[in-house]
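Hey all, quick one. A colleague (J.T.) asked me to put the pyridoxal-5'-phosphate job into the tracker so the inputs and the structure tokens live in one place instead of scattered across chat threads. No bug as far as I know, just bookkeeping. Sequence used:
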Amino acid sequence: MPDRVRKPPRQTFQIGEDAVAALMAKLVQGAVEKDVVVHDAWFLRCTSGYVSNETGISTIAKLLPNCLLLSDALNHNSMIEGVRKAGTEKQIWRHNDTDHLEQLLRAADPDRPKLILCESLYSMDGDVAPLHRICDLAERYGALTYVDEVHAVGMYGPHGGGIAERDGAVARIDILEGTLAKAFGCLGGYVAANANLIDAVRSYAPGFIFTTALPPAICAAATAAIRHLKTSQWERDRHQDRAARLKSVLHAARLPVMPSETHIVPVHVGDPEKCKMASDLLLSDHGVYIQPINYPTVPRGLERLRITPSPYHDDGLIDRLAEALVDVWDQLKLPRQSPQILAAE
Ligand SMILES: Cc1ncc(COP(=O)(O)O)c(C=O)c1O
């Protein structure tokens, strides 16, 4: 296997307004080119983050003969579908357990192409991947790295480049994937990597080739959102502040907030039917919609309501939410402590 296939050269990467602006210009001009150069990195824009994962992972894996996929156990369904469609051997490493990942890498044929797949920020528990440790292992064992930044891009890093930017790991990661939804409030997804890799993906990825391009209005909206979040730190600071306040108010109300390092605030229910009932009661009695999260999205026994405050949720709204949750917890006689809290005692 030539080196350039096993391990493409590193590149600097920055999600930038330039990328979407250039893309938009091309679309407005009616051109069919859909990839954009930003600094040294290339973007392949897809119709959603889901599609970019599914088609990106499966295409990259198919292009690398006999590729071994090493996927974190809690990766998103879109990544799982990408792995499934790749049709090559996969190994699942225990969530965020880099010792386990190393065991698998050590046992693999050193000459075999390997692709490590993880998210930077996991949306159900709000925990963060040890990106530098994963990159250390990738370098030691000659593996490529693919990181989904869907829940972090726009929200973390001094320019909203995600956890990889925050942790100074961008230049060490081979493929970054993200969304133009979530923080950017639009629609669309992308895969970013070096020019060779993106050129290969765009030439073979069915999820890119056989579907309609994003319309110019969406590209314009995404451009405006990226341009704003690249320079405005207010939303990121306020977002963290709101998440911290929400956690503290829910703790004070003795609600079973599960530990989380980020803006994701899971509240433990521990029963699938009551989880759905809690969500229904919040909506019918209090006008608050929070999705119930049940198996298979989370393991049985860890059913939860998952709350993600925005920068625009003020103190009054957070207090009202806490009161509503307390009322629902009382009505359903739900436990006030999560398994993690009990275990720690
Ligand atoms: C980790 C992760 N990756 C990818 C996606 C898909 O992104 P999009 O909503 O842009 O399709 C999601 C969606 O919620 C997600 O949670």
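Adding what we noticed when we looked at it: The longest helix spans residues 234-252. Confidence is low (pLDDT under 50) at residues 1-18, 20-40.
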